[in-house]
Amino acid sequence: MQYIPEELDYAYDALEPFIDQKTMEVHHDKHYVGYVDKLNLALEKYEDLQNKSIEDLLKNLNNLPEEIRTAVRNSGGGALNHAMFWKLLKKDSTVSGEIAQAIDEKFGSFEEFKKQFTDASVKLFGSGWCWLVVSSGQLEIVTTANQDNPISLGQIPILGLDIWEHAYYLKYQNRRPEYIEAFFNVINWEQVNEYYNKSK
To answer: Hey, where are the domains in the chain?
Structure first.
């Protein structure tokens, strides 16, 4: 079985002016599709692994054959991270529901959560992701390098921000803080709430 790239549920320009059409086209059609293609290539000789979900592969990296472990970690992580990221993007969505309450309880206020998430995202060195995860039943902000996914560490990601330059450089160049601020205008909080409820 080959993994198939997921299509966007919205037009490439649906997130304008916060994330531009050209970035979405290149990000989805080139970078994301490339990760899926490379994952399929890595698993070409391993039919037993092709039937597993990408989540299962990443949760059990140490059980994979050593010759493909790094490729699955990088390309499988890139495929899973982006498939989740696309679903987390939507304009005019307001934080509400159980996740809103959980954020207030953990961070004191939404503004404090935004401050801490932004701070972690700005300070991440090089390429990677910033996540809101459920870890041992508690919300936590974590960062991962490259295309690593928190599920490899036993955590459940419910919100993720791509901080690779390909996610923002066409519009924001080296102004990462502006990109992070823009991201908060296109978070699909209904989807975050769904991920949060599933995590329980």
So the answer is: 21-87, 97-199
